[in-house]
Amino acid sequence: MSQRDFRRSSRRGCRERLPAILRPVAVDAPSILGNNASFTLRYAVKRLRFALPAVGGRPAVTYAAFRSSSTAIHHAIRAAGLGVSVKAHMLAREHMLGRVSERVSFASEGGRLPRSCHVGDWAVRLGIIEARRAADFVIPIRDPWAVAHSCFVLTAADIDSAFAQDAVSRGDTPREELVDRAEALLFGAFPRDFMCRWIREDAAPALGWNPLAHAFDRERGCSEHEHGPWRIQLIRADLSDAEKSVALGRFFKRPTVQVTRKNGALTRSNTSEAVADIAREAIARRPDAVRALLDEDVSRHFWTPSDLDRMYRKWTTRA
Question: Of 40, 96, 147, 245, which sits most exposed with the smallest number of CB within 10 A?
């Protein structure tokens, strides 16, 4: 373990040993003095543009669970010149912290949703939601198991660094043992139902608008709604880039919106490829758990029964 990793691990361990009352908790606003200069500057610019419609125009917010194609959509909206384009992940108060240094990831939350201090989250929460400022929200929805798998791959080194290292090096560790370890992690405290819980525990309370209470066009893969001063588009991430581009172009009345894949480097490193392969096999071992997540109300709201059967086959078929 490097000295840098050791310091991170030590800080995380100390934080987890603190009495609950002393641990970082959600606050009313980000700390301006307690954050780094980059955060403070970017946050100030976002809030200023939100406050001056003549400068920023109507905000376009890509609001999504982690690992749900939000970066590609956000970049497409920004490239099309649609007002202030901002991305947000967690907007419910209980998931927001005042300092970047207090971020709590999947690795240490024991099943709770991650909490963070993110420029876009705070700018949208205070500058749009609480200010009731007119804005357009695009909310991507992704296959719940794809989100769980991708989040696990991305954070495996933080969750269990020894497992991640062994998955890459292999060495004398039998593959079956690595799959056993991945299965124990995935089906332990890790929030593998993150996509579904994000809809219920972050999006619905943050917006004061429950996506599950409104019709969704499962055949088209997207739907549009209005709630107070906001226009909201829900769009499935499994649509092709061309289909997403058409749907977004219609929503914004801007046919120049073009979606292209982003964040590919995050899923093509040697570490991620090794962990991804092992994690897929671990998930395939649990067909009942795969079906249970696909039977949740969130899954059934956004996908047709045939879609869910196809997703089930995908995640239960071993290579």
Answer: 40
Q: Beta strand 135-141 with 230-236: parallel, antiparallel or unpaired?
A: parallel
d(CA 280, CA 49): 43
Cα dihedral 10, 12, 13, 15 in deg (nearest 10): 120
Task: Specify the DSSP class assigned to residue 224.
Answer: E
| Residues 229-261: tens digit of each pLDDT | 999 999 999 999 999 999 999 999 998 899 988
For 70, phi and psi rounded to 5 degrees?
-70, -35
Query: For the chain, where are the alpha helices, taking DSSP H only?
Result: 3-17, 37-51, 53-56, 70-79, 119-124, 144-159, 161-169, 175-186, 194-198, 204-207, 241-252, 270-284, 287-294, 297-302, 305-316
| Alpha carbon distance 214, 228 (integer Å) | 15
User: What DSSP character marks residue 300?
Assistant: H
Rounded to two decimals, the pTM is: 0.86
Look at strands 222-227 and 230-236 and give their pairing. antiparallel
Residue type, 232: I
| d(C-alpha 38, C-alpha 5), whole Å | 23
